Amino acid sequence: MKQLLSIFALIFVAQLSYSQDCEDKNNRAFDFWLGKWLVYQNGEVVGSSIVRKSLTDCGIDESWKSNTGSPGKSHNFFNEETKQWEQHWIDEGGWKLDLYGNPVGENTMLLKSKKQKDWEGKDSMHILRWEKLPLGAVVQTWTVSYDDGKTWKEIFRGQYEHAY
Fold this sequence. Notes:
Layout (H helix, E strand, L loop, with lengths): L1 H17 L16 E7 L2 E11 L4 E8 L4 E9 L4 E8 L4 E8 L4 E6 L2 E2 L5 E10 L5 E8 L7 E10 L2
């Protein structure tokens, strides 16, 4: 019994020593993306997204659904060790995208991938940028490079409008 209590005490102390302040400004830097959204591209609704706090407010989870029914999910958080934001995205086919970066100014988040295979198996790099507009909408721009970052092509620009 004494050993069991010692183990629980060690786990509790380890948890307290690692605990990060989820109200810290670094952990709040992506809060501008929180909400229920309709996503527009070229003036037409292409999907919807729910972005909410998770894990006692230390993480942000997104649930995406395109108008064609294709879902995707992402988990986003500030990594206290690396001092960067991370996004881990997965779609219905199992394709995943891991992004890393930090805010650029007060209302913009910029995340980049390392070289990886895209959904067609091609070597690629990705940059996603979210920017909050003055009236509260958020624009997400996704660019991809197939030549180690020499050239970039925009593959998605969506405007997130609050769905009330």
